[in-house]
Every structure is written in C-alpha cells, then in structure tokens.
Amino acid sequence: MVRFPDGERPAPTLEDVARRAGVSRATVSRVVNGATLVAPDTVKSVQAAISDLDYRPNRAARALVTRRTGVVAVVVPEANERVFNDPFFPQAYHGALQGFGNSDVQVVLAIAQPGDPADRMLRYLDSGHVDGAIVLSHHGPALATALARMAIPVVFVGDPETPGLPFVDLDQVDASRQATELLIQRGHRRVATITGPLDMAAGRRRLQGFRDALTAAGLEPGPIEVGDFTQASGRAAAARILASGADFDAIFVANDLMATGALYTFGEAGLRVPDDVAVIGFDNAALAEQSSPGLTTMTNPADELCRVAAEMLIKTLAGVPVTSVILPSHPVLRGSV
Amino acid sequence: MVRFPDGERPAPTLEDVARRAGVSRATVSRVVNGATLVAPDTVKSVQAAISDLDYRPNRAARALVTRRTGVVAVVVPEANERVFNDPFFPQAYHGALQGFGNSDVQVVLAIAQPGDPADRMLRYLDSGHVDGAIVLSHHGPALATALARMAIPVVFVGDPETPGLPFVDLDQVDASRQATELLIQRGHRRVATITGPLDMAAGRRRLQGFRDALTAAGLEPGPIEVGDFTQASGRAAAARILASGADFDAIFVANDLMATGALYTFGEAGLRVPDDVAVIGFDNAALAEQSSPGLTTMTNPADELCRVAAEMLIKTLAGVPVTSVILPSHPVLRGSV
DNA sequence: AATTGTAAGCGCTTACAATT
DNA sequence: AATTGTAAGCGCTTACAATT
Asked: Which of B81, B93, B127 is the closest to A56 by Cβ?
C-alpha cells in the first residue's frame, strides 16, 4: 500500500490521462513519446487531457523500462577550487549545455572533491546514475582507461592518449607551430618557450609544435623552461630565463596565465613588450585581453570543444558510431607580438 | 520483450542475489536497506551473494516505489560566468556537499544559463528530477515565492524575505553593526559607507547595521554611496565620495570586492589606509587577504551556510520540521583599520 | 517474538494481437 | 494499411501472512 503525505495529491499518471482522453495507456504513451502512428484527432484529445491534468511522465518508471536514466554527466576530475577559478570550465560547461541543447537530457556536473579518491567518481558514474559522460581530461591515461572500462559511453575533451577512446581536442601541435611561426615571421630568431607540465599531453605537444616550427625554419630553439600552467610558474620561469643570461628576442608561453606572469617579470626587469621581447600565449583567455599590452595568443575554445563532445555523446547514445574530432586553432593578434 | 545490446550482460537484480543466497527477494531488499530484523547469518550470506555478483540496486526501480529520486539540487539562479568567477560559489557548493555528506543523495548543480527564463529552472525542479533543493538566493522574493509553490521542499541560503520559507542566513544587520562599531571604537567619527544594491536584502540590511551602530554611538552617518557589489562600482563610489569633498575618516564597504575597488581609488588619490582613511569590508573573501594593506573584514562563510542548509533539507526530507537559522559573523583584523 | 516469504503494486514501454 | 488496445514486464519495496 502506498500512502500519501497529507495534503499532497498523487501526481496524475498515464492511466489518468488515458481515462480522461478515452483511450488506452499505450496510446497516451505513444503521444507522449512523439510517435507518428497515432491518428491526428487522437493526438489532439490526448494532448488536451495531458494539459488539463498537468501530466508529466514519471522519470523513474520510464527509466525502469527503457534502461535509460536521461542523465549525462560533465565530469571534472579536478579539485573544486581550481575548477571555479579557471575560466576554462565555465566556458566548457556552457558549451556542453549548448551541445545537449534540446536533447532532453539532464546534465549533471560531477566535480571531484579535494581529497576524494578517483574511484569515488568512477563508482558514481558506473552505478546507473547516468547514461553517459563527457570528461574534461587534463590528466594522463590512468584515469582514462578506468573510465573507459565502465559500462557507459564516455567522450573525452582533450586527447586521453588511450587507443579506442573517442575525444575532441585542439590540434595542439599545429596551434603551437602557428604561434611560433608567427614570431619567426616577425623576424625573431632567438625564440624561447615556457612549457606546460610535461606529464600532460597539452604540455608535451605545445613544446613539440614549438620545436617543429623552429626546425622548419632552420633555427635553434632558444631557452626552454618548464612551468605548470599557473601564473606564478610563468613568472618564475621567465625569471629563470632572464637570470640565465641567455639571448632571446621572443617567447612562446604555453598558456595565457603563465604568459601574464612572464609579462609581469619582463616588466619588472625593464624589458619592453613587444620591442625588447615579443610574447605569444595560448588559450585566448579573458585575461589576454585585459593585460597590458594585450596578449597575442592562440584560440582554445573550450565551449566549442565541449559542444562537439556533447553532440558526439548524443550520437553514441543513439547507437551511431563516432570518431574523434580535432579542431583547429588560430592566432588572435593583440599588442604583445 | 527486453533486448540487450551485444556484449552487454544485464546487471544482476535482487532476484539473482536472492537465488544465489537461497532467500527471497524481500529478505535481500531488507539487507540492502539495512533493516535490523534479519537474522545475522542471513545477512552474512546475502552480503556474500551481493559482493559475489557485484550487485547494485537499480535506482529507477527503487525510485518508482519509494517515490524518491535520491537527487537534490543546489540551485544557482545566476548566469554562468558570474558563478564561476565569484569565490562565494565554490565555497558554497563545497559546503553543500559536506552537508549532504554520507546521506547517500546525489547532488546536482543547477545553474541558470544566461538568457534562460526563470521558469525553465522551475520546470526542471518541479518535474520529478529531484527530491528537494537548496537555493542560493540573492534575489528578491519573486523567484522565492515561485520556488516555494513547488511540490518539493526548498531551503534558501540567504533570507528570501517571504514568510514560511526556511532559510539560512548571516545576521547581516548585526555583522554590519559590528563592522561599523569597530571603526567607531578606533576613534573614527566621520564614517562613510558604500552599500550593496538596495533591491537586495543583503544590501539594505548592511546599510541598516551601519546606521544602527552610528545611532547607538550618537553619531551622524558620513557620506553614503550605493554600489552593486562589483569592484568597478566600489572604485566609482569611492571616487564620488572623494569628489563630493565630504569629510570622512573611515568607511564601511558592504563587500570585499567593492572594498578593494575603494582601496584602489584611495591609493590613486594619495590617501593612506588606514592612516588617512580606515576601511572595513565584508565577506572575508580571498582577495581581502591578498590586498595591500590586508583588508579588515567580516566573515561570511558560504560553506557553513550551505552545510547547514543541506542538513536542514535532509531533515525536511525525513519529515522533521525545521526552522530558519541565523549564523553569526565576526571581524577578521588585517591592516586596513 | 523473531524471522522469512508471498504477492501486490509503483508508472511506464512495447511486442503482439485485434480492430477498423 | 493504419490505428488502437491488451498484457507482460522492467526491478524494486513493503503490508501482511506464514513459519519457526
């Protein structure tokens, strides 16, 4: 027996709608699910009954028979604070929502909590809560393979470097080559770089593009310093280059946050940008526009990456096979080069 | 008939566990739900069967009979970008997660998208997706009353100013009085303020506390300028005060973001803080620590507010009546007073 | 009295049958 | 052939009966 708390009327069911419209439950179900094999007049009277009763399908009942929850997750395997302070994520989330658009799925943000073991998130994702997931992957293949082992389909944003896993990524090597070529075209011959962490694909590939451009131009790389994508690390890396006394007239910095750090250090050292040193960043973050001089940088459209990933996930859930997508990047010219 | 995609084995059900353990479905259900009226030996063998089969209850089936989804929402009726750039929100979200702790509910972040009409979120919340919601309320009573009309219980963080709706809030008036009293105690007699927007409860009440403190001390209020909680508005309001030529030796600014804006303006005008003008903010945001001089401010613990709200929602869902909670605030002394 | 099982039912979808 | 209905079943929980 089911009891209802006082004052709460049970929500109308398919049965109620069917009775009011004078048809069977099956017919109502067909109308609700947009089937075309219902007579137009029947559709009309069922829709009237639905709106009269303010009927809304019971998700649990539907999920039980369809074996679909109607929920997808946007997974951010990062500690809380980081997520909310990195402008990449709101953009990414917004893009994902756009991508799911009218698909009638509920989008859940799953953010790893600081101190949470990785398997807590895996357990959540693999417990029937969600039908599929988009993973903002900025980590190595360990988490990726674990995610891939799950029963639900997953699309990665950022190459997880694991065969067989569908992903959307920027052409990191090409983008970095473009950035470096831009410096070379402007006549710079001693080009330095501040890289991202080299245990991340984005870190390694942006360094690769840098090297490729110089090799193609017959130039030797200038000083190379490793950063970790934080502003502080950009500041420190720039300081190390200056302290080394190495000669350089331009620098490719693997993200905008580090690039603004480098701008700060150069400013303190009395170097003029771009006259004494040209600087190009990566990401086209909001701060690239705000810095002084404006930071020339490469686009890295988090929203578009996620929009495409969402579309891929929808296809996958519909049984349509998908292949990974590589998006192009282009330079945004401001004052720093 | 139900078909399974090739290669996918159907997940084990209660039935499977029951068979393996040699008991009925009902008994397995009792063990799964932690009932105490099962014989210890039975519990043991059922648990063994569960772990052998890696059984996990089907949420949809459970939800269908219990009429509970096991999902609660943290609702942020704010545009996307704002949310992710305001440090209040990660703190709040983290606190909510803490509050739900081990309660085995799934927490969903529902963030209004820019351009979304308010009823889109209402429809979502009222469509059986969630059992209840915490709403980070920084808006007037219009949204609050709409939310309160829904079938699910809602707890507000921030007084929605609508009778009968449970909320958690800071004692805004008392906190602002404390802040202003601190300035008076330090010997200041001409105390100005930059308020928040006066269509927000927090804006009005912080102004009220300011007035109360001055009245109690027998002092006239100094210049009063209205801001909108952004840094730019703090800068502009401070400039207006300076331009007015009004006399003042201290200022209470209704949030830290505006206070740092005011610090900037005072710095540009050659005023020394705290010697020429003492400044106290509100929120104890991260930037209060980073500014120079460090900003003296009032605590406004988003995480704790949300933790308490989560606990209230859990109680409400369990049928336990709750009453609104007002949390105290205290000053954090740094260099600006 | 303590423990377990039986059976109904939650609200849907969908294969198949029946009707027009 | 187009439209509709019948009835089974998805995987649980829980009132009540039955058993020890």
From this structure: B127
Q: What would the pLDDT profile of A241-255 be if each residue is shown by its tens digit?
A: 999 999 999 999 999
* Domain ranges within chain A, ordered by starting residue: 14-57, 71-170+303-328, 172-298
Q: Is the CB of A42 under 7 A from strand D?
A: yes
Q: How distant is C1' of C18 from CA of A27, in Å?
A: 15
pLDDT in tens, A139-156: 667 778 888 888 889 999
pLDDT at A197: 92
Please enumerate in sequence order all residues whose Cβ is within 8 A of that of A156, keeping only pairs 6 or more positions apart, or say none: A134, A135, A137, A144, A165, A166, A167, A168, A309
Report pLDDT for A82. Answer: 62
Alpha-carbon distance of A11 to A160, in angstroms, equals 45
Domain B14-57 and domain B172-298 have a common topology: no
By C-alpha distance, the chain B residue nearest A70 is B129
Q: For all residues of chain A together, what is the average pLDDT?
A: 88
Instruction: Name the architecture of domain A172-298.
Output: 3-Layer(aba) Sandwich (3.40)
Q: Which residues of chain B have pLDDT under 50?
A: 1-7
A249-279 exposure pattern, b = at least 16 Cβ within 10 A, e = fewer:
bbbbbbbbbbbbbbbbbbeeeebebbeebbb
- Is B90–A69 a contact, with Cβ atoms under 8 angstroms apart? no
The distance (Å) linking the CA of B224 with the C1' of C13 is: 64
Nearest CA in chain A to B61: A64
**CA–C1' B70–D8 (A):** 28
